[in-house]
Amino acid sequence: MKFITEEDLRILFRREPFASYDLPAQAKLTPGARQFLLDKKISFCDDPLTAKRKTSKPAEVITEAPVTEPAPDRFLLKLETLKAQFLEAGISLLDRDVLLAEQVFDLERKLSFVGKGALSEINPFEPCTGFNKENQNEPYSDCFEITGFHAQSEKGREIVLLHRLRCLVRELAAEAGEKNFNPVINRLSQMICLLYGGNACQRKK
Question: Could you give the CA distance from residue 55 to residue 52 in angstroms, rounded to a whole number?
Answer without folding.
Answer: 5
